[in-house]
Amino acid sequence: MVSEIWTEKYRPSKFSEVVGQDEVMKRVESLTNSLNIPHLLFAGPAGTGKSTLALIIVKELFKENWKENYLELNASDERGINVVREKVKNFARTKSLGTIPFKIIFLDEADALTPEAQQALRRTMENYSTTCRFILSCNYSSKIIDPIQSRCALFRFKLLEKKDIEKVIQKIIQRENLTITPEAIEKIYEGSEGDCRRCINLLQSTSSISPSITADLVSTILSDAKPKDIKVVLDYAISGDFQNAREKLFDVMLRESISGQDVVKAIQKEIWNLPVEPEIKVKLTEKTGEAEFRIVEGSDPFIQLQALLASFVLAGLGK
Fold it and tell me: Which CATH class is domain 162-222?
């Protein structure tokens, strides 16, 4: 038997079950309870509840008929103008089933729509507003053209705080009969970076290895650089020992199979614990940003990280 994916198994089905977005929930729930919603635009980082909220709205409005009155298009679909002209328009022009006089189209990752498709969507939203409502989801609302933004009620989602992530973890731990240490919860929160979906995936991955979840187990799944290892690397560099810093860094990367970008992120976090002046920390943070940009653009991560370590050595020498 194939086990369930926990992100689907534990997807909230009611407004009250969504964590971390209290203000958004209150406003959207009151709109839904009035049985009449405007076009909606959900903007915010991944894993914060945008798609889940769209499903809750639809199920609250249409009850058992929700599948017949709901069309979802996401990043796996073609995002050109033909999709808007054909699939979206054909669905929007037909009458809804049930007492609610409109259907709902959910466009996930709407900021991936081409500018031409967005212009076509703008006209469709205007022409079929009596028979259809649109819910658009995106990471950045600035990538949605102004005419669409002005037609929608905008709701901004934020990354989940530690208390919200902990609430989700404790709920799953109780239902799955697992045990977890406070350090492991902290590690999962750091690894998820406020993304609830990633938090649940981490929890499922670790629980498949052992029902007792520890910080070391989470670190193994995360495959990220341990702060103490990066601290040793930076201590060598700041003291002027470039050779040992370089060897220790490569040992960490190869032993733990960590990417250059992940190492840069770990270094950036550890900079503020270094025994150097605040002005030097600012300069080192800038150098870290440059290295990360070059790695993203395709530069060799080993060369860029060596150059970054050289900056730490020079900072330690006061240059």
Answer: mainly alpha
